[in-house]
Design a protein that fits this description.
The protein starts with a helix and ends with a helix. The protein is globular, with a radius of gyration of 17 Å. It is built from 11 helices and no strands. By secondary structure, the protein is an all-alpha fold. It has one domain. Belongs to the 4-toluene sulfonate uptake permease (TSUP) (TC 2.A.102) family. It is found in: Cell membrane. Keywords: Cell membrane, Membrane, Transmembrane, Transmembrane helix, Transport.
Length: 243
């Protein structure tokens, strides 16, 4: 592994740590494309999973017991269902069309939040909305590695405080990534090699986590939700352009 690849992986791990603990994983959609600057697509995708799990562990620890347990009981089964559906229909789904749908949803939701404010969306934050958005998160995470936006939209609609928002997202993504880990291992996509590659970069995940927490405690709820909406808009535009 050459020096530039090492620097790139270290940067991605650090940004992932910041993203997880400071912005509920909002920047995760950019991780794999960055790694693909120096690594083959399959290797970049496989390497990203242990990096995400390491960052999840630090993030869950940082926001221990700040999450909404009752909500997670309804979100996690939906994510698992979405992952299973994605594996079942992967050969029938147009990835480019799925990206366009996710991009359009992100753009519409974020513009609504930025222009009209963060009033709650009753339909989106309902039980039906919980099942749909968590399933969409698991589905899109498996097919296009963009599981963050659906959950971010759902939690934004709930109007959570920054700590509760990030804590709930951290546990949700940790559970989803562990489930994906099992699937990737069975399919042979993820091997011990990816874990041994990711392990030396563990300190960068910790430093990123600490910096993310540092940023999070310095913003209030209104500013945090506006940042989330701005990031969703950026993700939507990026996803649309890459579709």
């Amino acid at each position: 592994m050459d020096l530039m690849t090492i620097i790139l992986i270290a940067f991605v791990v650090f940004v992932t740590g910041v993203s997880k603990s400071g912005f509920a994983g909002a920047l995760g959609v950019f991780a794999v494309p960055l790694l693909m600057l120096k690594l083959p697509a399959t290797q970049a995708i496989a390497l990203m999973l242990p990096i995400l799990i390491i960052a999840d562990i630090f993030s869950v620890k940082s926001y221990w017991m700040k999450w909404d347990s009752k909500l997670l009981y309804s979100l996690i089964p939906g994510a698992v269902m979405g992952i299973l559906i994605a594996h079942a229909v992967v050969s029938y789904v147009s990835i480019s069309h799925l990206k366009i749908v996710i991009a359009a949803t992100c753009i519409i939701f974020s513009l609504k939040g930025l222009i009209l404010g963060n009033s709650k969306w009753t339909l989106l934050s309902s039980k039906a909305g919980s099942l749909f958005m968590s399933s969409l998160s698991g589905f899109s995470s498996t097919l296009v590695h963009a599981g963050g936006p659906p959950l971010m939209m759902y939690l934004s609609a709930k109007g959570f405080s920054p700590k509760k928002f990030i804590a709930t997202a951290s546990v949700f993504f940790a559970a989803m990534n562990v489930f994906k880990l099992l699937g990737f291992s069975v399919l042979g996509i993820l091997t011990l090699s990816e874990f041994t590659t990711a392990l030396p970069f563990l300190p960068f995940a910790l430093w990123g986590n600490q910096f993310g927490v540092f940023l999070q405690v310095r913003v209030n709820k209104v500013t945090f939700l506006r940042l989330i909406n701005a990031l969703l808009l950026l993700i939507g535009l990026y996803t649309f352009c890459s579709s």
